[in-house]
Specification:
heterodimer, A: 215 residues, alpha+beta, 13-stranded antiparallel sheet, 3 helices, B: 24% helix, globular
């Protein structure tokens, strides 16, 4: 009963708030192409200035470097202070290898959580596309599912094109990501990630550098 | 976060301290004698961060101002604007965000007081009793600083200073974190003992 209710909420109620109409299978490829515009298909190296806001009003600004390969899911990430002090460096290619981690970034949970956030922001969702459709105002929606997790991508056209990602586990929202201002090669210049569970925080990313790696 | 703040502040403070070392005639006994001759420093810096993950260094540019006994302004102008101001026992850090400077609340005053006690000793030319770095003179106008504390050594392996032929001026500082991680600071337009407006250490 609960599952039926969940499906009803996910498929009917929420899209209904945006005036949603499911697409035909024939229309899926075109919609998916729009949904996945912010996610490159080749290996990239990006540098962001990241402002993190934590509960209690604390905030910090750091630099983040990510070298990611969409075809394999490999991520090499570095976080450092503006002054050049490296806080954290790790590689995830199916398994986590932490190369450097200063407190308080030295917990395994932090590394896993951070890599998941990076994957959510930089690479197309894992799993198959299980739903696609149109929303009012020339927008569209794509929903991906894997196991007990779903990721919805909501594209809205208008003065500023935006992509909003919602990551859920068992129906509960874990993350929301808003992307906008794509560069000429499709990388978002501005990203805001809001985390809800297990810890709440917000990351505002501004793209400083990007480079496609084709070797 | 306190330990983290302390590391960041030490990372920034290394450079002004090194200018004091440069007044050094070449051996330790000169340090105390000449430490009192430098009362202020201003310089333009270019910071290059080199990491294995990068194909080319990350370059930042900014300005440094230091006024004895305990005022520092470390200002990044690009690519990210930020200002670290230390004035007496007050430490504040500001970051440019959404079109204005906002205070970064991660700096902790308690950590800074510990750092300032350390630095006060350096300013008196006292490097023997410092708990932080061991300084060695090397050939080729080089000074090498190695952390004494094991905890700090995991963060900074060593700091190499290249002195300019101009007395009292540093040409370059290389901070080695590890095999594949370096931060290089290069200084130009260095001015020693010029009047620096007090407002630079009080306002952003």
């Amino acid at each position: 009963m609960r599952r039926i209710l969940l499906i009803y909420v996910l498929l009917i109620v929420i899209p209904g708030c945006m005036s949603y109409s499911p697409a035909s299978r024939k229309e899926y490829p075109g919609i998916q192409k729009t949904c996945l515009r912010p996610f490159p298909s080749v290996r990239y190296r990006v540098v962001h200035s990241i402002r993190g806001s934590l509960p209690g009003g604390r905030s910090a600004v750091i630099s983040g470097i990510s070298d990611f390969t969409p075809s394999t899911g490999r991520i090499h990430a570095v976080m450092m202070s503006i002054e050049g002090l490296t806080f954290f460096e790790a590689v995830h290619d199916g398994r986590m290898s932490v190369k450097r981690a200063l407190p308080p970034f030295d917990s395994g949970e932090f590394a896993e959580g951070m890599m998941e956030d990076i994957a959510l922001i930089l690479m197309k969702p894992r799993g198959d596309m299980i739903e696609a459709g149109f929303i009012s105002g020339n927008g569209c929606l794509c929903r991906y599912g894997k196991g007990n997790e779903t990721v919805e991508i909501i594209y809205r056209a208008g003065e500023k094109m935006t992509w909003t990602l919602i990551r859920r586990r068992n129906g509960a929202i874990l993350r929301k990501v808003r992307m906008s201002d794509l560069t000429t090669d499709g990388i978002p210049e501005r990203v805001v990630l809001t985390a809800y569970k297990p810890v709440s925080y917000t990351l505002s990313l501004v793209l400083m550098q990007r480079e496609a790696i084709r070797y | 976060m306190r330990a983290q703040s302390r590391r960041i502040i030490l990372h920034c403070m290394v450079v002004p301290i090194l200018f004091f070392l440069c007044a050094w005639g070449g051996n330790r006994s000169d340090i105390k004698k000449t430490a009192g001759t430098i009362s202020s420093i201003s310089a333009v810096f270019t910071q290059k961060k080199m990491l294995k993950i990068l194909s080319k260094p990350l370059v930042s540019k900014g300005k440094l101002y230091y006024q004895k006994p305990s005022s520092l302004r470390w200002e990044y102008e690009s690519p990210v604007k930020s200002i670290l101001i230390m004035h007496g026992s007050t430490v504040k850090r500001y970051i440019w965000h959404n079109g204005k400077m906002i205070e970064d609340s991660s700096a902790q005053i308690q950590s800074m007081q510990v750092v300032m006690n350390e630095i006060s000793g350096w300013f008196r030319g006292d490097f023997e009793s410092t708990k932080t770095f061991a300084a060695t003179v090397k050939p080729g106008r080089m000074i090498e600083l190695v952390p004494k504390e094991k905890g700090l050594m995991k963060i900074i392996q060593k700091i190499s200073v290249k002195l300019s032929t101009k007395p009292g001026v540093i040409e370059r500082v290389t901070i080695t974190e590890g095999l594949d991680s370096l931060t290089i600071l290069e200084f130009t337009n260095v001015l020693l003992n010029k009047t620096i407006p007090a407002s630079l250490f009080q306002k952003i």
